[in-house]
DNA sequence: TTGTACGCGTTATCAT
DNA sequence: ATGATAACGCGTACAA
């Protein structure tokens, strides 16, 4: 195995200084077309590969940190695909890590990313994240954006969708279009900010409706299995007129459980996020679409703008969710 | 903003040399307990953070490259979660990138990862990958494992599931348990290796059955929408006795389309991968389970073993798929 | 335990 | 307008 080809080798081969070779590669400096071509030819023949690590020792690196609670949840998959595509298209690479929604893991991963000198950070904070996280990031002093979830009480840059509005849309549809008089909000971690905000939107819709609607709020994990379990319990204990699920996976599980219990179509179900299978399930799932991919792209672009110096600070962005009405909210009855 | 705290600062503050400070951090050298504690105290008070980038200039770095075709496809999400968890638990970080299943993107990303000096590479090659990819990786000379897909004709280390066996299981079930006499294999890119291998398994099962079974093979994208379109066409053109879908998303789409066409339950559908929603769809999806998460963990562990020097070379691994029988293959009729 | 060369590209400064 | 010199960034590892 031959030694690594370095910039010195290229320079020597092209009969030029290391500096000039560097200028050719980065496109930074003033170099005549003639020498530029000589250098590029040398790079080609020697098979030189740029060493990003060495370069990052001087200038700010081209690596970005991305933290999500669960890399394999469909919605975060969408978010990540947006983040990743935007970064790699701009020549940056994303160090993506998953906290499994645990604070200790998150603290550990933040530290690891810091040790890896990432140029920026996009983070979907784990449930229960508090000022410890915000302080750690602020003392670190790296461009950061909170994605899809924010930390309660903090005013850090945030890219997400309007959860209050999402809850409102779902509840409003249930009470106004379907005259629901009892609604259950199902799923999500007890103190998750998305959950709390959506419930606020739900309450607002109920208040506006003027009618007397009973609201029950239940937590669960955000999986299909948890949805099935919850659906069984609801079927056994008496169904509400409508169920707003914390995400589509839960909703699909609930629908299945009700089907098994012989209650198919006997209540209205609304999911959240509008992931792929939502439109194809039976019944097709009414869902609040949040377009995770665009969220990811937006966050990534915001960070890139700051890194490049185009913007002085990361800008927050609140996307408008849309209610996609399908069969599961009652239109199939 | 104060200057970065470096190892020199720590050393000075602890009244010791840079080398000793380094030894304390890495745990490598023999340092007396007394000085170790002094150094650790200094690290604490100064708020020193290790600089992985600088360190990687000398020793091999702790960054690993991971390439998948689509970061947001459920199956790859499972794979990635296994890869990521295993690496970060061992102190490594994964640079994860998505080729969108395009060869030009893949070539570009391989180069970028190379520039980032990753210590190892796990790659799910894009459809159509050939020896250009294998050569590029070999000349690079970094520990590599092909994950879930391999390159036709190459003998590189490979961690995946036995696709031939998977195809066999699905077809065998359709012909033996359900007496199917016409089967359609639906989905996947025309020349994808998984597709070809599974078809081989299907043919083997048909041959073993002794009976005369007609096999049709159709390609499609691997999305719910593509499944819906394909299902419509099948419904219009005459249904086979059984359909083996390239993945669960397609299967869910097909089932939905047949439902819409009034053909619910009139053929048998088998999916592939057994992702979350499979068990909850209506009808519940029979599927070939491949456990992407374990595949990811296995690949990551293989790479870690080689990096650490415990193993001389990456070892291949073929996992056994399992057929999970549910309603969609005819048990609900 | 420590001194010090090393790994590799960047960039401010100097020379033509 | 072009190109070169040399200091810099930060931890690692070997010789002393």
From TrEMBL, chains A, B:
Q: Name one GO molecular function term.
A: DNA-binding transcription factor activity
Under the heading InterPro entries, the entry gives: HTH_LacI, Lambda_DNA-bd_dom_sf, Peripla_BP/Lac1_sug-bd_dom, Peripla_BP_I
Alphabetical UniProt keywords: DNA-binding, Transcription, Transcription regulation
| Top-rank lineage group of the source organism | Bacteria
Q: What is this protein called?
A: LacI family transcriptional regulator
**Location of the HTH lacI-type domain:** 5-59
Q: Which organism is it from?
A: Kribbella albertanoniae
What Pfam families has UniProt attached to this entry? LacI, Peripla_BP_1
Q: Lineage of the native species?
A: Bacteria, Bacillati, Actinomycetota, Actinomycetes, Propionibacteriales
């Amino acid at each position: 195995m031959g030694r690594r080809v370095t910039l010195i080798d290229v320079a020597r081969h092209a009969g030029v200084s290391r500096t000039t070779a560097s200028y050719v590669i980065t496109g930074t400096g003033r170099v005549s077309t003639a020498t530029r071509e000589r250098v590029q030819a040398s790079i080609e023949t020697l098979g030189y590969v740029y060493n990003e690590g060495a370069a990052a020792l001087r200038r700010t690196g081209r690596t970005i940190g991305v933290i999500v609670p669960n890399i394999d949840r469909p919605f975060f998959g969408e978010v990540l695909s947006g983040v990743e595509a935007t970064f790699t298209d701009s020549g940056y690479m994303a160090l993506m890590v998953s906290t499994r929604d645990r604070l200790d893991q998150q603290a550990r991963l933040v530290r690891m990313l810091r040790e890896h000198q990432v140029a920026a950070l996009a983070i979907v904070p784990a449930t229960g994240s508090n000022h410890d996280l915000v302080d750690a990031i602020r003392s670190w002093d790296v461009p950061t954006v909170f994605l899809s979830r924010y930390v309660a009480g903090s005013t850090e840059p945030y890219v997400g969708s309007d959860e209050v509005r999402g809850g409102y849309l779902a509840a409003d549809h249930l009470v106004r279009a379907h005259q629901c008089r009892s609604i259950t909000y199902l799923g999500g971690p007890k103190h998750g900010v998305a959950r709390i905000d959506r419930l606020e939107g739900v309450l607002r819709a109920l208040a506006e409706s003027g009618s007397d609607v009973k609201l029950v709020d239940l937590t669960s994990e955000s999986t299909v299995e948890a949805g099935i379990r919850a659906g069984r319990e609801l079927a056994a204990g008496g169904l509400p007129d409508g169920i707003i699920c914390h995400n589509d996976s839960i909703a699909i599980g609930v629908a299945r459980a009700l089907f098994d219990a012989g209650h198919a179509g006997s209540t209205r179900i609304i999911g959240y996020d509008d992931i792929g299978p939502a439109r194809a399930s039976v019944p097709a799932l009414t869902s609040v679409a949040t377009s995770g991919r665009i969220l990811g792209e937006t966050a990534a672009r915001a960070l890139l703008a700051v890194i490049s110096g185009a913007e002085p600070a990361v800008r927050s962005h609140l996307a408008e969710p849309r209610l996609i009405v399908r069969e599961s909210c009652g239109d199939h009855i």
